[in-house]
Design a protein that fits this description.
Radius of gyration: 40 Å
Structural class: alpha+beta
Number of helices: 4
Strand order of the largest sheet: 3-12-15-14-13-16
Number of strands: 23
Order of helices and strands: HEEEEEEEHHEEEEEHEEEEEEEEEEE
Strand content: 35-45%
CATH class of the largest domain: Mainly Beta
Helix content: 25-40%
Largest sheet: 6 strands, antiparallel, barrel
Distance between the termini: 66 Å
Shape: elongated
Number of domains: 3
């Protein structure tokens, strides 16, 4: 009897330990998030591949046309300027003095050449010189006159180059120099943009560009105006592809703000959403919930505590939402995290509901 009791105790211990080990070793439910499907109007959008930028299609950079020193720079970045307003004065005195000296010498040479030509004409009429001598004097006179004309024009240009003016009403968007700086030919001094002709430049992947058309509505969020969204419309779709690699081929689009335009400045960054289509009463799922299994689109439903792989036929789709045309019904729970470790058809899952 004592032996029987010992055996029963040992057996009970083994059973308890075994049950504990089994409970500890058995697969634990995979933690997932799910959403209950419901119908709603769906907006299909296209998003740029990178952050968009505010630009102006009337922009000019005023650069130095001659070497010189900046003596007067009355504008700052952000200043408004009127057409014809002086934006910079340059001291070109050294080069101007050289041009003026050359012009004075050329004028003196022209005076002498005219005297020689007139004198030879008189001598030719009396038979003292040949026609060839007269013709040579005339050529010399004409050459001297052309040189003076060229130097007169150069002197006028130097005066023009020393005072640079705004070509149109606008805003100073860039001024990379200071008064007193020495500048060389081609050195940018100020950039002027027309704020009335601003647009948003966006880069669109080639797979999405076929869904775009002019006048489509655009939502614009700008970092400088947190919490606000502005309206715009697609104004231009470039016909030219950019990017040399297959994976980076894109197109530029331009969107313009609907009135009233926000007080933005060229160079500001913007997040853009182009609204391409609207589907009324669509049954849709978050795009990350759709996975590809051997060429078949599936989603995982959460049924009775298990993940059930369900083939679906999808329709319109973007990065956020995908329309489901068949395979699912309204009210069904769909797992949003099909990529979690251990996920598969029939796997036990513990779900947490989230708003769809």
């Amino acid at each position: 009897m004592a032996r029987l009791r010992v055996f029963l105790v040992i057996a009970a211990v083994v059973i308890v330990v075994g049950a504990g080990v089994w409970l500890w070793l058995r697969p634990k439910p995979v933690a997932v998030k799910y959403v209950v499907l419901k119908r709603a109007d769906m907006i299909v959008s296209v998003f740029p591949t990178t952050t968009s930028t505010i630009r102006s299609d009337n922009e000019v950079t005023i650069s130095a046309q001659r070497n010189g020193r900046i003596t007067h720079l009355p504008v700052e970045e952000g200043d408004s300027v009127a057409r014809g307003q002086i934006v910079v004065r340059l001291d070109l005195s050294e080069e101007t003095a050289r041009i003026f000296a050359e012009r004075d010498q050329a004028r003196a040479a022209l005076t002498e050449a005219e005297r020689t030509y007139a004198r030879l004409q008189g001598l030719f009429s009396k038979g003292y010189v040949s026609q060839q001598e007269v013709d040579a004097a005339k050529k010399g006179r004409d050459a001297a006159k052309a040189l003076v004309t060229g130097l007169d024009e150069a002197a006028a240009q130097y005066e023009k180059y020393s005072v640079l003016r705004a070509p149109f009403d606008g805003v100073i968007s860039s001024r990379p120099v200071q008064a007193g700086d020495l500048v060389t030919i081609g050195k940018p001094i100020v950039t002027i943009v027309d704020p009335a002709r601003l647009y948003i430049s966006s880069t669109i992947d080639e797979v999405d560009v076929g869904r775009l058309s002019l006048q489509q509505p655009v939502k614009v969020a700008i970092d400088a105006f947190p919490g606000k969204t502005f309206e715009a419309v697609v104004d231009r779709i470039s016909p030219v592809v950019t990017g040399g690699k297959l994976e980076t081929r894109t197109f530029e689009t331009r969107s313009r703000f609907r009135p009233p335009a926000p007080p933005v400045k060229p160079g500001m960054s913007a997040d853009v959403e182009i609204l391409t289509e609207k589907v009324a009463g669509a049954l849709s799922v978050p795009t990350p919930a759709v996975v590809d299994k051997k060429g078949e689109k599936i989603v995982y439903r959460l049924i009775g505590g298990r993940a059930v792989a369900t083939p679906v036929r999808i329709g319109l789709s973007n990065w956020n939402v995908t329309v489901v045309e068949s395979g699912l019904a309204e009210g069904e729970p769909v797992i949003l995290t099909p990529d979690v470790g251990g996920m598969g058809d029939g796997v036990k899952a513990a779900g947490t509901a989230v708003e769809g």
